[in-house]
Amino acid sequence: MKRRTAIAALSTAALLAWLPAARSADTIDVLNVGVEPSSDGEAWLLSADFALSLSPQLEEAVNKGVPLYFLVEFELLRPRWYWWDERTALATQTHRLSYHALTRQYRVLLNGVPQAHGSLPEALDAMSRLRGWRVMPRDRTRGGVSYEGWLRLRLDTNQLPKPFQITALTNRDWNPQSEWKRFPFTPETPRSAP
Asked: Does the pLDDT of residue 155 top 80, yes or no?
């Protein structure tokens, strides 16, 4: 009896030690995030870099003509000690990755702007850089107030064909996503006119 318990404990420990390594190979990570005012001063622009890789199953699906939709989600909260945090802004953006067999090109649609790439690594590299995304009007924030920004990138499994949606429910390889990246954001206090 003790031997079975020991074997079960060792098996569980080995499985738990293996899981983080298996997860890190096919996940998405948010590397850095920045928010700055637009040139016209009317909005806040978000820029971010992601580490994006696909599992062999997702690569095969793309190469066989299944488009993949990735969802970038942004949320800005104002923490309050006396009540729930106030949601200041919420924005999403969809990126589409597909393969066109006749031209042998990977096509990426980033916020409505199409791009063509000769290889999958080039297409993933383009998708991993987000620049100048207008996430909210500038008047939604107040100068000198501390906010918390949250950002993540994930595969939108709702836009997969139905058989793949079922697979994505139980298979981590079909459901890559980053953890929510939290970052502080404090807009500058506007300077008064002389």
From this structure: yes
